[in-house]
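Annotated sample (chain length 261).
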Amino acid sequence: MTTSFSQDQISEWAYFSGDHNKVHFDEAIAKKNGLSGVIVQGMLVLQDAKNALTQYIGGPSRMKFYLKEPVYRDKEIVYLISRKNDEHHLKVHDIDGCCCITGRASPEKGETNIVQAKHNIAIDRPFLEKQIQLYQALYPQVGYSWMIMDALLFSVCFKYQNGDPFYAKAQKITLEPDKSKVVTFQVDQDILITEDILTYDCADLDDLTFYYEDQDVLKEDYSVYSLLNYQIYRRDKLLYQASMGSITRAFEAQNRAINKR
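Output written by the structure step:
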């Protein structure tokens, strides 16, 4: 499958998710942050990858993705899927042959070790209903409940908790008040798809509990790698779980420090 992402598509994802990072909109700011131009949100690029891999899922499964290089606006990319034993592997590369994303889907074998995230977040039902309806209106081609919940949980970070959670990360590595001078890249995602969510109807929001946990894993002078773990439980049973890794970097502050040496 070959595709590209326009500015309108980038804006649609921002409208749904609340992720308005300026590197997705302003070329000058993107270049100040070490990029070649405006880049597409990682979760938007992964949406087609998840949709393609889900057709090979027949039961509880894991998906893992690694975002190696940014995908640029209007640049064609190719999604390739291959099979190795009981795993399906994905590779996304651009028309220049640069590998942007790798991933795989595999059956979840044996007993799953589940650690409940630390923080229970109460989310208003009207917000959930509105977000699900908005997602289905913008992305009618996505019919898998786990993907809808995956997108919903991501949007909660920005739209329901009122702010950019990744800018808070930047405050740990620089006191720079200008948000355009810090940038966050999604670099991975680890997903557990349960048996229950494969048959779950997203219109049924009864008895759901949402958990989030934010972890700083590796902090350097001008960057921090962090994990955002989120889970949904239904009647005290895990329905869906994902962990998203990201790097927040203060590019200009780092360059200033290097130039002073």
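Annotation: The mean pLDDT is 85.
Annotation: Helices lie at 7-17, 27-32, 42-54, 125-138, 145-160, 165-170, 195-198, 251-259.
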